[in-house]
């Protein structure tokens, strides 16, 4: 499941930020969109073994890693808006290509989740 939020979507230069955990398919699906530059693919590496809104807590994102994928395909304006949000959350932002992100996340995050349930 992907979650996205929009900054100024009612305006010509609105920005959409996807925050889902995988990036390859979503980045491919928007690759030819006329407003691709207004899209930022991001993934915040934060959380606990719990899920859902009740698992949130103050400071959840502080000092955690945020990955922005395909930054060269997003406009400077879109990246600035996204960075402003993630900086306000006190996150450490790094950049990767979508396929590289998905490979790393599969090894580091998803495998540990799978193994913890079996």
Low-confidence stretches: none
Number of strands: 5
Please identify which CATH superfamily we are dealing with.
NAD(P)-binding Rossmann-like Domain
When the domains are counted, the total is 1
Instruction: Give the terminus-to-terminus CA distance.
Output: 23 Å
Helix content: 25-40%
Q: Average pLDDT value?
A: 87
Number of helices: 3
- Under the CATH scheme, the architecture is 3-Layer(aba) Sandwich
The ordered string of helix (H) and strand (E) elements is EEHEEHEH
Broad structural category: alpha/beta
Q: Beta-strand percentage?
A: 15-25%
Q: What fold name goes in the CATH topology slot?
A: Rossmann fold
Give me the oligomer status: single chain
Q: Quick one: overall form?
A: globular
Biggest sheet architecture: 5 strands, mixed
For the largest sheet, list the strands in their spatial order.
Answer: 1-2-3-4-5
Radius of gyration: 15 Å
CATH class: Alpha Beta
């Amino acid at each position: 499941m992907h979650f996205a939020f929009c900054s100024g979507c009612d305006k010509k230069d609105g920005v959409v930020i996807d925050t889902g955990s995988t990036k390859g398919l979503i980045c491919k699906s928007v690759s030819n969109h006329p407003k691709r530059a207004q899209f930022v693919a991001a993934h915040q590496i934060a959380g606990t073994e719990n899920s859902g809104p009740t698992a949130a807590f103050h400071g959840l994102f502080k000092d955690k890693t945020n990955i922005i994928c395909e930054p060269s395909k997003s406009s400077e304006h879109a990246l600035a808006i996204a960075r402003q949000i993630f900086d306000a959350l006190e996150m450490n932002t790094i950049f990767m290509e979508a396929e590289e992100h998905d490979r790393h996340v599969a090894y580091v995050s998803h495998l540990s989740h799978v193994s913890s349930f079996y």
